[in-house]
C-alpha cells in the first residue's frame, strides 16, 4: 500500500477543518505570495477508553476525564486557526471500565466498531499511532479494532515475525493549506509512529512468536531517511514514549528526548508517562529539555496528560525556504479541560461535545450494568476499620494480587530468583475525610466498582529492588503514622498521628515484623531522618529467620512510591520495572481469575505489646462495632468526636 495519501474531508465536527484532495486544490501560490504560514497541530494521548466524563469505579460523574470534553477544546482550537491537524498518540483501546467491558464481557468481533474508535471517528483525526496498551487484549482484538478506524495509523518499530509490517511505519500526506495572505500551498507532511519496545515483555503471552519490537531511535534511523526521500516539508513523530534524560543505552522505554536528535524529525508528540509537558515538574533540570517553551533539543514537543485531561496544541510558524517549508518558530500549550482550586475543588474548563458523547452512550450504559454486577465472591468481609493498628484484609487483597502479578512479570527478567514482597497502604482510613471514609465490603458478591473501595487511586504498578536494610528503613518511614507512646504514662495517649497521610502507611507483605511505638519515629513527616538511634521496627524476619540486611528483594508497589512519593528510603533509585497496568486493574483481574477470594489478614505485622497501664487510643467508624479483627486486642471506649468512635488498645 502506498504511504503517500491525502487527508480526507469529514462531516459533523470535521467540517471546520480545511481538508481536500489534491485534485480539487486551488492553483499553487505564485512566487510573489508571502512565504509565511501558520499551522496548528493538535494532540490527544493516553485516552484509555475515557470518552464519557465518568469514573466507573466511583460510579459518579468526573469532570477531569473524557474525550467528549476534550472534543470541545478541539473544536474551539480549530475554529481559531486557518490550518490545523489533529493526531492521537496511542493507548486508546484499554484502560477504563468501558474498555474492559468490551474486551471481557461484550467482545469485539470482526466488522464491529469499538466505542473508542467510534468516538475518535467522530473527530477529524489526521493520523494516529499505537500505545503499549493496544496490545493488552491480543492481536486479534487489536486487528478487529483498528479495522474500523477511519483514519490511518503508523508504527515504525514493530513488525510481525517474518518481517511483515504490523502497520505502515510512516505516511506522507499532501495537504492544501492557506498562508497568511490567503493563498493556497500544498505541503507534504510525513508522519511516523513509535511505541515502547517493552511491549514484548509486558504482553509476552500475546506477542511472543508473533511480533518483534525494536529500539525507537534505531527504527527512526532506519525509516526517517526513507521518508525524507519524498522531500517532506514537515516530519511529525508520534512517539508513544516519554521524556527522560541520561545517556542513551538503547531500548529505552522513554526515548522521546533521544528521538529528538534524529535528523529530519521536526516535531515530536509524546505520551505514555501520563504527564504534562511543557510545565510538569518531572521535566525540570533535564539536559536538552526546555520545560517552559516546550522543546526537546530545540524541536517543539508536547505531552498532554492522560484520559483526555488536556489537549496538546503546537502552533508552528512556517517559512518557505527554497522549495520547502521549514519551522521558523513555535508555541506549545497543553490546554486542560479542568482546573483545581487551592481548596481542591474541580472547576470544569470544557463543555461536553454531544456528537462525540452520543457515539458511546449505548456501551456506556452497558458498562454501568457490568460494573455493578458481581465479578466474583469474597468469602470474608473486607473493611479498613482497623487498618492503621492491625494487619488488614483490605490491604491483604492488594498484596495478594500484586505479588501474583509481579511474579509473572519477574519470571521474564534477571531478577526472577529474588523473593517478591508487596507494599500497599490502607487508603480509606477515616482521618480528615470523616467517619464514613472506610472500606466496608460485606462477604458475598463483589463488583468491579467495589475495587475503588479497596484501591482508591489510579496508580500504575512499579517494581523496585531493595536490600534487607532498605526494607527495614521503608517500614521505619511507614511507622511514622504512630505517635510516640510513653510507657510510663497512665493518661490517655492518642496512638495515630493525624497529620500522617494513611496512603504513606505502607504495609510490606512477605516479611513479618513488630512496631514498637514506645520508640521515637526515625523519620519526620517529610521523610527526613531525625532520630538515627530510634528503631521502631523490631523482630523483622523473612521466611521465619531474621532478615539479612544484605539480601536482595523485589518489592511491588506503585508509581507514586517508586517515583519518590513520601520520600521512602530505597525506592526512587531502584526501579527495575515500570509495569503497564493500574494497580486496581491488577486487583480486578485477580478477582476474575480466582472467582472467590478470602483476603484474611495473616497478621504478618503487629504493634508490639504495651504495658497494661498504658491507655493508647485511636478512632474509627461507628460501623466498626463488633468487627474487631482476630488477633487485635481493642475495646470501644466511647465517643471519639466528629462522628468517630474511640477504641483503646488492650494487652
Automatic annotation (TrEMBL):
What would be one Pfam family of this protein? Metallophos
Q: Name one GO biological process term.
A: nucleotide catabolic process
Q: Which CDD domains match?
A: MPP_CpdB_N
Query: What UniProt keywords are attached to this protein's entry?
Result: Hydrolase, Metal-binding, Multifunctional enzyme, Nucleotide-binding, Signal
Q: Which GO terms describe its molecular function?
A: 2',3'-cyclic-nucleotide 2'-phosphodiesterase activity; 3'-nucleotidase activity; metal ion binding; nucleotide binding
Q: Which cofactor does it need?
A: a divalent metal cation
**Any GO CC annotation of this UniProt entry:** outer membrane-bounded periplasmic space
List the catalytic activities from the record: a ribonucleoside 3'-phosphate + H2O = a ribonucleoside + phosphate; a nucleoside 2',3'-cyclic phosphate + H2O = a nucleoside 3'-phosphate + H(+)
Q: Where in the cell is it found?
A: Cell envelope
Q: Where is the Calcineurin-like phosphoesterase domain?
A: 40-274
Outline the extent of the 5'-Nucleotidase C-terminal domain: 433-571
Which residues belong to the signal peptide in this entry? 1-29
| InterPro entries per the UniProt record, alphabetical | 5'-Nucleotdase_C (IPR008334), 5'-Nucleotdase_C_sf (IPR036907), 5'-Nucleotdase_CS (IPR006146), 5_nucleotidase/apyrase (IPR006179), Calcineurin-like_PHP (IPR004843), CpdB_N (IPR041827), Metallo-depent_PP-like (IPR029052), TAT_signal (IPR006311)
User: What does the similarity note say?
Assistant: Belongs to the 5'-nucleotidase family.
> Mind telling me what this protein is named?
2',3'-cyclic-nucleotide 2'-phosphodiesterase / 3'-nucleotidase
Amino acid at each position: 500500500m502506498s504511504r503517500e495519501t491525502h487527508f480526507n474531508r469529514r462531516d459533523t465536527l470535521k467540517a471546520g477543518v480545511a481538508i481536500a484532495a489534491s485534485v480539487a486544490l486551488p492553483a499553487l501560490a505564485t512566487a510573489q505570495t508571502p512565504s509565511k504560514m501558520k499551522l496548528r497541530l493538535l494532540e490527544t494521548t493516553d485516552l484509555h477508553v475515557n470518552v464519557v466524563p465518568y469514573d466507573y469505579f466511583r460510579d459518579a460523574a468526573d469532570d477531569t476525564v473524557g474525550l467528549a470534553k476534550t472534543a470541545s477544546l478541539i473544536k474551539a482550537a480549530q475554529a481559531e486557526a486557518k490550518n490545523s491537524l489533529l493526531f492521537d498518540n496511542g493507548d486508546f483501546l484499554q484502560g477504563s471500565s468501558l474498555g474492559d467491558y468490551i474486551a471481557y464481557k461484550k467482545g469485539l468481533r470482526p466488522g464491529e466498531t469499538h466505542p473508542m474508535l467510534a468516538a475518535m471517528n467522530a473527530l477529524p483525526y489526521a493520523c494516529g499511532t499505537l500505545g503499549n496498551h493496544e496490545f493488552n487484549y491480543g492481536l486479534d482484538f487489536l486487528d478487529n479494532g483498528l479495522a474500523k478506524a477511519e483514519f490511518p495509523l503508523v508504527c515504525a518499530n514493530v513488525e510481525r515475525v517474518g518481517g511483515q509490517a504490523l502497520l505502515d511505519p510512516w505516511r506522507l500526506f499532501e495537504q492544501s493549506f492557506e498562508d497568511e495572505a490567503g493563498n493556497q500551498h500544498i505541503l507534504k507532511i510525513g508522519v511516523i509512529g513509535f511505541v515502547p519496545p517493552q511491549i514484548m515483555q509486558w504482553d509476552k503471552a500475546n506477542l511472543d512468536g508473533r511480533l518483534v519490537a525494536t529500539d525507537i531511535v534505531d527504527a527512526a534511523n532506519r525509516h526517517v531517511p526513507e521518508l525524507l526521500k519524498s522531500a517532506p516539508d514537515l516530519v511529525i513523530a508520534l512517539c508513544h514514549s516519554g521524556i527522560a534524560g541520561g545517556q542513551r543505552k538503547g531500548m529505552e522505554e522513554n526515548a522521546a528526548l533521544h528521538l529528538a536528535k534524529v535528523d529530519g524529525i521536526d516535531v515530536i508528540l509524546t505520551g505514555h508517562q501520563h504527564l504534562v509537558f511543557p510545565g510538569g515538574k518531572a521535566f525540570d533540570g533535564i539536559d536538552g529539555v526546555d520545560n517552559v517553551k516546550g522543546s526537546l533539543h530545540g524541536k517543539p514537543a508536547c505531552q498532554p496528560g492522560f484520559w483526555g485531561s488536556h489537549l496538546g496544541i503546537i502552533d508552528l510558524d512556517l517559512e518557505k525556504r527554497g522549495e520547502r517549508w521549514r519551522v521558523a518558530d513555535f508555541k506549545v500549550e497543553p490546554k486542560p479541560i479542568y482546573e483545581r482550586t487551592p481548596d481542591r475543588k474541580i472547576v470544569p474548563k470544557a463543555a461536553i461535545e454531544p456528537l462525540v458523547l452520543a457515539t458511546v452512550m449505548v456501551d456506556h450504559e452497558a458498562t454501568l450494568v457490568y460494573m455493578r454486577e458481581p465479578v466474583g465472591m469474597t468469602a470474608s468481609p473486607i473493611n479498613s476499620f482497623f487498618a492503621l493498628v492491625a494487619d488488614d484484609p483490605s490491604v491483604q487483597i492488594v498484596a495478594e494480587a500484586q505479588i501474583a502479578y509481579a511474579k509473572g512479570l519477574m519470571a521474564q527478567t534477571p531478577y526472577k530468583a529474588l523473593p517478591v514482597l508487596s507494599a500497599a497502604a490502607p487508603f480509606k482510613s477515616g482521618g480528615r475525610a470523616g467517619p464514613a471514609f472506610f472500606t466496608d465490603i460485606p462477604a458475598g458478591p463483589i463488583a468491579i466498582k467495589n475495587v475503588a473501595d479497596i484501591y482508591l487511586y489510579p496508580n500504575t504498578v512499579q517494581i523496585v529492588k531493595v536490600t534487607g536494610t532498605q526494607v527495614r528503613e521503608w517500614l521505619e518511614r511507614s511507622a511514622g503514622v504512630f505517635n510516640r507512646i510513653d510507657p510510663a504514662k497512665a493518661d490517655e495517649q492518642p496512638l495515630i498521628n493525624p497529620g500522617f497521610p494513611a496512603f504513606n502507611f505502607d504495609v510490606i507483605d512477605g516479611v513479618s515484623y513488630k512496631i514498637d511505638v514506645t520508640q521515637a519515629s526515625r523519620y519526620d513527616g517529610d521523610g527526613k531522618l531525625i532520630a538515627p538511634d530510634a528503631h521502631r521496627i523490631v523482630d523483622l524476619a523473612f521466611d521465619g529467620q531474621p532478615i539479612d540486611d544484605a539480601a536482595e528483594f523485589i518489592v511491588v508497589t506503585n508509581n507514586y512510591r517508586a517515583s519518590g512519593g513520601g520520600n521512602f528510603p530505597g525506592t526512587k533509585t531502584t526501579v527495575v520495572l515500570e509495569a503497564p497496568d493500574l494497580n486496581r486493574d491488577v486487583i480486578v483481574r485477580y478477582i476474575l481469575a480466582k472467582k472467590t477470594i478470602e483476603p484474611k489478614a495473616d497478621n504478618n505485622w503487629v504493634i508490639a505489646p504495651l504495658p497494661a497501664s498504658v491507655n493508647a487510643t485511636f478512632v474509627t467508624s461507628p460501623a466498626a462495632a463488633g468487627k474487631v479483627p482476630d488477633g487485635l486486642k481493642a475495646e470501644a471506649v466511647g465517643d471519639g468526636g466528629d462522628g468517630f468512635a474511640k477504641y483503646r488498645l488492650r494487652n
